[in-house]
Design a protein that fits this description.
There is one protein chain. The chain is of the alpha+beta class and 350 residues long. It folds into three domains: 3-89, no CATH class; 93-212, Band 7 domain (Tetrahydropterin Synthase, Chain A); 298-350, no CATH class. Helices cover 30% and strands 29% of the residues. It has helices at 65-73, 128-138, 144-163, 168-173, 175-190, 209-214, 217-233, 241-245, 253-261, 265-269, and strands at 3-8, 18-34, 38-44, 47-52, 55-58, 80-89, 93-102, 114-125, 195-206, 270-272, 279-281, 299-301, 308-310, 327-328, 335-336. The strands form five sheets. Strands 1, 2, 3, 4, 5 and 6 form a six-stranded mixed beta sheet that branches. The relative contact order is 0.08.
Amino acid sequence: MPLIEAVQWRDAAPDEFARRFPEVSLRLGSQLTVMENQWAVFFRDGKALDVFGPGRHTIRSYNIPILIDLVQNLGIAGDIFECEVIFVNKSQIRSNFGGRAYSAPSGQIQYQAEIGFYGYLILKVTDPKLFVIEFFGNREASDSEDVSRYIRGFALERVIDAFGEYDIVNLVKNLDETTDSISDIINKDAGKIGLQVVDSLFEGIDIPEEARRFASSMGQGAMSMQYAKETAEVLPDGGGGAAGAGLGAGIGFSFGQQMMNQPTQEQEAVIICPSCGAQNPQGQKFCGNCGTNMQASRSIKCPNCGADVPKNNKFCGQCGTAIMAKTHCPNCGAENPPGNKFCKECGTKL
């Protein structure tokens, strides 16, 4: 192994966190030059040892005491010793991140939205010894690209985990607070590997329009009914096919039966105004939006089976009979059954 008389990191790139000089053979009296924005860490056997700040250093036994103690314990003390020198950048470095994450399950249908995101972190090393131990000791990084790749993954993992703690309703309503809390998590964890997050920014958050609609109570009800309808359409399949495999956000055969046979709490808690469609608390006599009488009859009897049928229905939901309103004679005013072409009282054409 060639003997190194001087070690220096001259060609540091602006976005390079560290540079490793492996298997360096030094002698007491060798020169170590550290630039103004660098640290130099002596590293051996997976351990970060002596740290040097900016300046030109002549290597003596007194200024590498930890390394000297180590090699003496190994019985190889002398003027020449082997180690690695890892230079660490003290400057602020921008690290971009981006990816896709799922929100926490929400509502009875356990809806999960896929969210796209991208942004950046401004990072700086604050503890060079801890940084070197974490990356070149524990994670066995071999070069600066290994370090950068891990830091990008480090940010991405925490963003994905954090989004998974929020359902889409809370995420849409509190997006700024959510991204701030995620930044706090990254900053806290970064300190454990010798880094400080100087600044962080989510430059873009992509929430699908379907998810934004679901975030409203009306949207949740509509989506639940739609999924139940889709499930019900395949029930004659006997549980196989699409129903057996699950629909939409994980809805399967059992959920389809539940939705058909058992109304949701939200559906039970409100009634829809027949005039404007607004949701009103159950038992309210007049619509809070348009004032329509909510107690007025909203159904008629099927002429065939006698079942209650909503006024706007064209067919009976129980027997399929066409629903037609009774006709009043324009001449005598008599009420005539649906389908009569002439008045039963005076014969006037209807």
